[in-house]
Write a structure and sequence with these properties.
Elements: H1 2-39, H2 51-88, E1 97-98, H3 110-123, E2 128-131, E3 147-151, H4 157-165, E4 172-176, E5 181-184, E6 189-194, E7 197-200
Parallel strand pairs: 1-2, 4-6
Antiparallel strand pairs: 2-3, 3-5, 4-5, 6-7
Amino acid sequence: MFSEEARIFGRFRSATYRLTALRAKVVHICAIFWNDFLSHQDQPEMIKGPPGDTMCIVFRVALASLLALSMSGIAVADSSQKRRGNIFKHDYSAAYTVQRVSVRTSCFPTKLKAILAHIAVQTGKKPMVTSGHRPRSGRSQHSHCYAADIRVPGISEKRILAAARSAPGIGGVGRYCNGIVHVDIGPKRMWAHCGKRSKRS
């Protein structure tokens, strides 16, 4: 996701450099025409039409060229900005999977989805949500659709926990003895739960 943003920004910067170079070339060509015009002012036979008309033509060509290049630059910048904007408005649901079709994730707020996307970027693999929205979970963040229990296949629990703790907007981070990691956007806290034993910090 972030590498895609860097690639698009690189293309935008490259296009900007090219447009700047083209503008400089147009200005240079116009200067050559203008100098040529001035050098032949004393030779009317080499100029078709009155000198004033020739000067107007030169300026019109220069102005039209610069205007066209400027509009092209605005179009490229606008297109690149829109594409970059789409990255920030990314459909974060593509950054994770679900263990079963019955796992409810459609109500996940953007903040929680962004946390899962962050974990995907940090670990290099998509988290698999094993539990999402559970309406009858009492005071649990799951009841508000603010939490997700996840696994990241092939990634150690230690690395998953480190990625979760570094996620912007993270609230609670918990771990279970079966390797499942809990993340939510509630109050900041950390805990570990193994059967009847529970350790909180």
